[in-house]
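just leaving the lab so this will be short. what follows is a protein written twice so to speak, once as letters and once as structure tokens for the fold. can you read through it and tell me how you think this chain folds. thanks a lot i owe you, the record is right below.

___
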Amino acid sequence: MNSLKRFSDPVYCIMRLVVGLLFFCHGAQKILGWFPNPKQSAGPLDTMGLLSGWIELVGGILIAIGLFTRVAAFISSGEMAVAFFMVHAKSSLIPRLNGGEPAVLFCFIFLFIFFYGAGRLSLDSLLFNRGTTPAPSTV
């Protein structure tokens, strides 16, 4: 299994990109009107809807490209926790029953990204770690 470690950085980058773009799509639907969902009524958004839409739109792009990743992931994770408890948990606390599975998944994926960081293949790494070398390990 150690032979798979060499793929961990590129696979993490792809995962961060895909999750960020999926999150962006939710914001683009709310704010820009892209990707309309025929199952949902498209009406004017309240303040919470606008705020969540902007967090999803901007946070999704920042996470996808790996810029200010920890901050974007922390805010996005919090937004998904709020979405779950304010919207989905009203009917049931079980995500499968209340339609909150995407919110829970996004919340914990963003929490992981917050703790893990942007990874080597990101704009954060390119812009903020220029010319740095890893610290020597103390054994």
In short: Residues 11-33+47-118 form one domain. The two ends are 24 Å apart (CA to CA). DSSP finds six helices and no strands in the chain. The mean pLDDT is 90.
